[in-house]
């Protein structure tokens, strides 16, 4: 004679996971997450710096294109100590800011990398109508962006062509 438990059909077996099985699976997931979290954080820190460098490179190219297409000077003024940069039509002293607020580097990202992280005359890039950058004898301007973990990217801007290269240094 088969005894039926409430909620069961005669001849069937209970299906599911025991508390021990669930606990073991949760512990394994926790262990895998604990091992992978530092690697994920390092990747995220590197990604944040790379994104900031690529965004600045895009804005540099945009300012150059504006100068050529509108046949007038456009500039980017850097404040390395504040971690900001501002876009202008004309130069920073007499021009018009294109946005109400300066661009700010993301949290944890700074202009860094060497003694002069913004190696640009007067900390200002001025693009002329012919696409050239600044009036100087040097061929390249550089900007270094990094974080406290030593991840540094260098933006190299060719003065005659305005071409921007982003290179990871560390």
Structure commentary:
The protein has 170 residues and is an alpha+beta fold. Helices cover 31% and strands 26% of the residues. It has 1 helix and 10 strands; from the N terminus they run αββββββββββ. Strand 9 and strand 10 form a beta hairpin. The longest helix is centred in the first third of the chain and has 52 residues, at 19-70. The radius of gyration is 28 Å and the shape is elongated. The N and C termini lie far apart (76 Å). The mean pLDDT is 86.
Spell out the key features of this protein.
alpha+beta; 1 helix; five-stranded antiparallel beta sheet; elongated; 31% helix; minor pseudopilin epsh fold; 170 residues
Q: What's the overall average pLDDT, rounded?
A: 86
* CATH fold category name: minor pseudopilin epsh fold
Order of helices and strands: HEEEEEEEEEE
Number of helices: 1
How many strands, what sense, and barrel or not for the largest sheet?
5 strands, antiparallel
**Uncertain regions: pLDDT < 50 for 5+ in a row?**
none
| CATH hierarchy class name | Alpha Beta
| CATH homology superfamily | minor pseudopilin epsh domain
CATH architecture: 3-Layer(bab) Sandwich
Coarse shape: elongated
- How many domains? 1
Report how far the terminal alpha carbons are from each other. 76 Å
Secondary structure: helix percent: 25-40%
* Quantity of strands, as a count: 10
Q: What integer value in Å does the Rg equal?
A: 28 Å
> Which structural class should the secondary elements be placed in?
alpha+beta
β-sheet strand percentage = 25-35%
